[in-house]
Amino acid sequence: MRLILLSLRLLCLACLWPATLLNNRFPNRKKNKDIYLGEHAKHKYGGRIDYKVKKQDSTKSLLIKTEQLLRIEEHDFAMRPGFGGSAIPVGIDVQVESLDSISEVNMDFTMTLYLRHYWKDERLAFPSGNNLSRTFDARLVKKIWVPDVFFVHSKRSFIHDTTMENIMLRVYPDGNVLYSVRITVTALCTMDFSSFPLDTQNCSLELESYAYNENDLMLYWKNGNDSLRTDEIVLSQFFIEEFNPSNGLAFYSSTGWYNRLYINFILRRHVFFFMLQTYFPTMLMVVLSWVSFWIDRRAVPARVSLGITTVLTMSTIITGVSTSMPQVSYVKAVDVYLWISFLFVFLSVIEYAAVNYFTTVEEMKKLKQAKISEFDAAQAMAFDGCFHDTDVELSPFPPLGDLSMDHQVSSQSSTVPDPPPVLGMRLRRTRPLSYHLQLIMSNSYIIDSYSRFLFPLAYVLFNIIYWSIYS
């Protein structure tokens, strides 16, 4: 019996001997694995690690804990808070970071801003001993209800996503929620260019709920006029005179009334750029066209080339301004100035055309008279070298009876006393307009003399009227 028990013990030792050898050959394998896990997980979980938790993704485990804390799976967040009751108030707070660009051609502006929403959702309330809020990123935003605020009249908009989506969600223990997002939006701004470039533009960015009318959602400025804050914004062509918020209602025939918030700002254009690029060159071209009035009227190439050069330069300035502006159907202030200046330059060319024409007519008359006088003298001297009586027209003498009658009338008229002269009266013969025109046509240099004073005087008067109206 003893032999049988001894043989069984030896058989058991023989079976356990290979496992013992393996453990003795690799004694630190399990220990190294535990140390590796401990070094990487001790910092996150305080050194207390369950083996099952080690195999899971730490991010997913935290998100599951957050969803459990906020009881997201227990509620239907497709419905707004307090569905079936009164409208949920949603406060708005905006901080304008920059006004990136303003386009007159497209009539729009681009703005980057921080848009913050404030509301209360009791479904997200959670117990907290220290009453501290919890902050989350865009991953949790997709699982809860957020206001569907959009920008009215926007052309393009996007949420910044570098390095991650610029979205912040902060939940307080009592259910109050702060939702902040950084957006760049390009919106329409209806501009009036009747006073361009001496204009002031009123633009606004409008916010509104897309799906919820005033019975379900009430938009309002969180802190009144202090809800709109701006950084220091400097623009190249405009000066921002005012930034102010306002609110109102918008009506749609199919869905009803909606609350609408406005971000209003007033832009006043810097005119110095246009003075350098448009107004000063135009003035110089007009003054340059007056130089032809001091050039001799017989110098045709000089005066014609000067007039054509100024006309072409004015055409180039007008074309350059028109290409950088929208094609509006009304007259702008810069158009008034450019086209009237172009008219002055054009009239200076027409003035020389009139001077040249009258000068040519005058010289032709003098040349014709000189030829006639030479012809008459040669014809008279061809016969006997003296003038003949037949060439002289003599009026016949009046009869004697007529002379006596004239003497009696003159004697009777002399007996009537003349009226005394009135003090301050002076007799002047009025000459018709045709006389003055004939005088100017026969003396064409008078046109240049008058133009030297009339053109500058008229242009100065035009500038006084223009700047007093549009400034």
UniProtKB/TrEMBL annotation:
<feature type="signal peptide">
    <location>
        <begin position="1"/>
        <end position="22"/>
    </location>
</feature>
<dbReference type="GO" id="GO:0005230">
    <property type="term" value="F:extracellular ligand-gated monoatomic ion channel activity"/>
</dbReference>
<feature type="domain" description="Neurotransmitter-gated ion-channel ligand-binding">
    <location>
        <begin position="72"/>
        <end position="270"/>
    </location>
</feature>
<keyword id="KW-1015">Disulfide bond</keyword>
<dbReference type="InterPro" id="IPR036734">
    <property type="entry name" value="Neur_chan_lig-bd_sf"/>
</dbReference>
<feature type="transmembrane region" description="Helical">
    <location>
        <begin position="450"/>
        <end position="469"/>
    </location>
</feature>
<dbReference type="InterPro" id="IPR038050">
    <property type="entry name" value="Neuro_actylchol_rec"/>
</dbReference>
<dbReference type="GO" id="GO:0034707">
    <property type="term" value="C:chloride channel complex"/>
</dbReference>
<keyword id="KW-0472">Membrane</keyword>
<comment type="similarity">
    <text>Belongs to the ligand-gated ion channel (TC 1.A.9) family.</text>
</comment>
<keyword id="KW-0406">Ion transport</keyword>
<keyword id="KW-0869">Chloride channel</keyword>
<keyword id="KW-0325">Glycoprotein</keyword>
<dbReference type="InterPro" id="IPR006028">
    <property type="entry name" value="GABAA/Glycine_rcpt"/>
</dbReference>
<dbReference type="GO" id="GO:0005254">
    <property type="term" value="F:chloride channel activity"/>
</dbReference>
<keyword id="KW-0813">Transport</keyword>
<dbReference type="Pfam" id="PF02932">
    <property type="entry name" value="Neur_chan_memb"/>
</dbReference>
<keyword id="KW-0407">Ion channel</keyword>
<dbReference type="GO" id="GO:0045211">
    <property type="term" value="C:postsynaptic membrane"/>
</dbReference>
<dbReference type="InterPro" id="IPR036719">
    <property type="entry name" value="Neuro-gated_channel_TM_sf"/>
</dbReference>
<dbReference type="Pfam" id="PF02931">
    <property type="entry name" value="Neur_chan_LBD"/>
</dbReference>
<feature type="domain" description="Neurotransmitter-gated ion-channel transmembrane">
    <location>
        <begin position="278"/>
        <end position="374"/>
    </location>
</feature>
<dbReference type="GO" id="GO:0004888">
    <property type="term" value="F:transmembrane signaling receptor activity"/>
</dbReference>
<protein>
    <recommendedName>
        <fullName>GABA(C) receptor</fullName>
    </recommendedName>
</protein>
<dbReference type="InterPro" id="IPR006202">
    <property type="entry name" value="Neur_chan_lig-bd"/>
</dbReference>
<keyword id="KW-0868">Chloride</keyword>
<feature type="transmembrane region" description="Helical">
    <location>
        <begin position="337"/>
        <end position="358"/>
    </location>
</feature>
<keyword id="KW-1003">Cell membrane</keyword>
<keyword id="KW-0628">Postsynaptic cell membrane</keyword>
<keyword id="KW-0770">Synapse</keyword>
<feature type="transmembrane region" description="Helical">
    <location>
        <begin position="271"/>
        <end position="294"/>
    </location>
</feature>
<keyword id="KW-0732">Signal</keyword>
<keyword id="KW-0812">Transmembrane</keyword>
<dbReference type="InterPro" id="IPR006201">
    <property type="entry name" value="Neur_channel"/>
</dbReference>
<dbReference type="InterPro" id="IPR018000">
    <property type="entry name" value="Neurotransmitter_ion_chnl_CS"/>
</dbReference>
<keyword id="KW-1133">Transmembrane helix</keyword>
<feature type="transmembrane region" description="Helical">
    <location>
        <begin position="306"/>
        <end position="325"/>
    </location>
</feature>
<dbReference type="InterPro" id="IPR006029">
    <property type="entry name" value="Neurotrans-gated_channel_TM"/>
</dbReference>
